Amino acid sequence: MANLTSSEPRSIAVLGAGPVGLATALAFATHELDVLLVAPALDPARLADERRTAALFGPSIDFLDNLGVLAHRTAVSAPIRAIRIADAREGLVHAPEMAFHAREIGREAFGSNISNAVLVKALADAVMAHGRITWISTPGATAITHAPGGIQLKLAEGRTVDARLLAAADGRLSIAPRAAGISVRRWSYPQVAIATTFHHSRPHRDTVIELHGAHGPLTTVPLAGDSSSLVWVETPDAARALLDIDAEAFAAHLEERLQGVLGTIDTVGPRASYPLSALAASRMGASAIALLGEAAHVIPPIGAQGLNLGLRDAAALADCVADARTRGADIASDEVLEAYHRMRSIDVAARSASIDALNRSLLADMLPVDVFRSLTARLIAGLHPLRQLLMHGGMGYVGHLPRLMRPNAPRPSP
Ligand SMILES: Cc1cc2nc3c(=O)[nH]c(=O)nc-3n(C[C@H](O)[C@H](O)[C@H](O)COP(=O)(O)OP(=O)(O)OC[C@H]3O[C@@H](n4cnc5c(N)ncnc54)[C@H](O)[C@@H]3O)c2cc1C
């Protein structure tokens, strides 16, 4: 079998064809860089089993637009114009309900909710149509070694692929951190998320509902029509029970939890479960290897931050590499990886820490923690500048915004 031994000093390999790997390949190609995408071919059966949707905020939506993906998004997604967060726990002290409206910060919407399967298919179609991207279809890379001039990937079928720079977006079991000499911290939570979609009788009014329960949040996110996606976090035992009951009984439990806010729930889609865990890499890149998406950070699905973070990794790395190319510099130098680390590490660490703290505060069941949560909610409700900061920050409009995440960034044709 032929090996792809490119000695081209500017070559880039992207590992993994999840949403982050696909977006990374497209971001490089949009900056007129040639890319080898090393990943299994898209599996329609796996896509059909995907139950998650992704609430993507303004910069991520601008990124998709600049990549030329999902131009006719309105047909397959729903806008998110408001977010309501309510304390649904029993106890002495309750946090007041918080509501955020995109119009408060002069925007029509915070973002859009898109089915993961639709998003991945659209990204994959754009990758396959792009003249600068070669998709090397493989069951997977099994080893990464440093070779003269760059990186060598060993593939499961025995072939090798050489590249100057490796952008590793191979998910939470990534083989790249070890090859890059980057340490990774992993931990888990005593929680399981159930993801599904459902149809309801009352309109969602383009509003996310996040109910903070004693074992985690229950979040509904608008979909087209009178439908919503659901992420319901519970203890492993409670989640098992919710997975084992039939759709009608599940709908009844859900209706009770939502206290009629979305009316009668008549249809519930297939359910999938995700044990909650987290991962934090100590660096975003080293030794000609950059980590992106869940290869670098995994956080609980609260506040819809995970994929938004991963897409920001993709756009930021593409900027760093494109800038090095423009300077005529080595695209995989320590300087480039340090610039990428500086651009991403604070955003990733701050969001990971705040989501972890919020999740742990829900599980704490301690009066001082409840009092603190309640006071914080009151402060947020009353302080207009703080609300604005939270809304802009939650959407990702803080710090340096990569070029491809700005509205109408110049887009070279494929
Ligand atoms: C219930 C739930 C709801 C969520 N909701 C949201 C939300 O609303 N908004 C949001 O922003 N985020 C959300 N997230 C987070 C989001 O789903 C993830 O951040 C995102 O899917 C991660 O994408 P990724 O491309 O980094 O990883 P993955 O999707 O895991 O992709 C990794 C890819 O790499 C491939 N791969 C693995 N190993 C190899 C190898 N050795 N060689 C080649 N290829 C390999 C895999 O086949 C896979 O295709 C949610 C998560 C959960 C659990």
Q: Under the CATH scheme, which class of one domain?
A: Alpha Beta
Bound molecules: flavin-adenine dinucleotide
Annotated CATH homologous superfamily of one domain: FAD/NAD(P)-binding domain
Shape: globular
- Mean pLDDT, nearest integer? 90
Q: Termini distance?
A: 30 Å
Assess the beta-strand content as a share of residues: 25-35%
* Percentage of residues in helical conformation: 25-40%
**CATH architecture descriptor text of one domain:** 3-Layer(bba) Sandwich
By DSSP, the count of extended strands is 21
Low-confidence stretches: 1-7
Main sheet attributes: strand count, strand direction, barrel closure? 9 strands, mixed
Given helix and strand content, the structural type is alpha+beta
Radius of gyration: 22 Å
Count of DSSP-assigned helices: 11
CATH topology of one domain: FAD/NAD(P)-binding domain
